[in-house]
Amino acid sequence: MTQATPPEDWLAYLAWRAEQTRRTCRYLFRRCGLSRGILVDVGCGAGHAAAPYAALHPGLRVIGVEIDPAILSRAPDELGAVVGDACRLPLVEASVDAVMFHFTLMWLAPDKALREARRVLKPGGHLLCCAEPDYGGMIHEPDPGVDRSMSSRLMRGIERVGGDPLCGRRLTGLVGDNGLRILEVGSAARPRHYPPGDADAADELERVFVFRTLFHPRSGPKWRRRVRSALKAGGYFEYLPVFYLLARRD
Question: What's the pTM value of the predicted model, to 2 decimals?
Fold first, then answer.
């Protein structure tokens, strides 16, 4: 998140991302039998990813760790909100059953964050990387870019504000290098076709490109105009690879 990003825009972005990956998160929670115990949501934002699941499982205590107190103040009561740094978690060693990241590692020093996750996990505890993108593998047709592709401009914009646009492809190496056993890796995203004349598609794409403008403000309006033109003609196709990973501390 850039310092200039309005909180309301960022909250809307986080909510939209959580909505897009809801099925993957629920699958990972079920896969590791996460219905009770303690789950730490690192970089939780306002709790959009974990809080809905916690509400369904009274035996599960969710601790949301977020460095921005203004964002964290919007979290629901189901989330035990704690202001803290992902690389210095305010938790004792071997004290939690699961740690999750959701579009978070890409904004962190990932080795430090993963070492902290391993430190606080109990033996047998699970690491859930629910969603990390790979903007280098992004496909769009037609490309709304002008003199450079949209994906390359997004990558540079994300790097400028301290993010790693290729975090998704690095997940297995990062997690394996930090002493956690990988159990499963998969895709959390599907290709999308937005047909011409579809009002719902136009509304969703408008939201998507408002969020992308956060990372590249100069290009955002041009991208939006070109995508609107595509929707009036033959439609628009896009695929952004987003990966999940499940691991365990042995």
Answer: 0.91
